[in-house]
Amino acid sequence: MSSSLDHLQRHHGDFTEFRDAMIETSAGRFGPIWWGVWDQHVAPVEPRAVLDLGTGPGLLLPMLRVRLPEARLVALEVQPVMLETARAHADDADAELIVADLAHPLPVEDAAFDVVTAVMVFHEMAFPPPLLGEAFRALRPGGRLVLYDWVRWDLSDYLGDRDLTPDVLQHFREHCLFSPDDLAFLCRRAGFTPVEVVGRKGGHFAILVVEKPAG
Ligand SMILES: C[S@@+](CC[C@H](N)C(=O)[O-])C[C@H]1O[C@@H](n2cnc3c(N)ncnc32)[C@H](O)[C@@H]1O
User: Fold this and answer.
1) Is 149 in the pocket of ligand 1 (CB under 6 A)?
2) Summary count for the chain: helices (H), strands (E)
3) Half-sphere exposure of 179 (CA within 13 A, CB side)
4) CATH no. for 2-211
5) Domain segments of the chain: what residues?
6) What pTM was computed for the model?
7) Which of 35, 83, 117, 160 is the most buried (most CB within 10 A)?
8) Ligand 1 centroid vs 121 CA: distance in angstroms?
């Protein structure tokens, strides 16, 4: 757990600032495009149990509760500042919040979830591919993973009018590593079948929906 926390510390520095930024930007992240994808590609699996990986401040949980009044909601997070805020949202949403490092086997049962969400967390991990295997294990056959993250774009575009500092370059490496096709490739390697890929913000982000095959 401590190596993941060290890795996150290098990525984010001040976690209070980062938590506040995640709260401020949540309306955009979980806006009409997200819920459009949800309604079209996730709601049809009739979720009765949802697992949110790297829930951060836990803002998705109350929104899920509105749509899924009867569902079991479980959220995993490792960072203490995030956990503190997530605790209140999890309580409000009647969700289970578990302290867990996503770099290790997840503390959840096999095939226990209809839906797994991973929003803006994949790029934060030093070696994220095994997380897809764990999401696959946690899903029931026919269940779906929603993977929403940064995808590759040009350095000139990423930089805008900022200076190219070592810190900015490091963030570029982390944010702009995988293309949408790379993410789909990694999901297929983990056993998933891609269902939909939706670009966001001019291709700076992608929302992938992939399914654990039913048979
Ligand atoms: C960019 S935030 C997104 C939070 C939330 N999903 C959202 O969209 O509002 C990513 C979150 O993933 C968490 N995270 C990153 N690596 C993790 C790990 N190895 N184990 C658990 N949580 C992790 C971070 O602490 C952070 O709260």
Assistant:
1) no
2) 10, 7
3) 4
4) 3.40.50.150
5) 2-211
6) 0.95
7) 117
8) 5
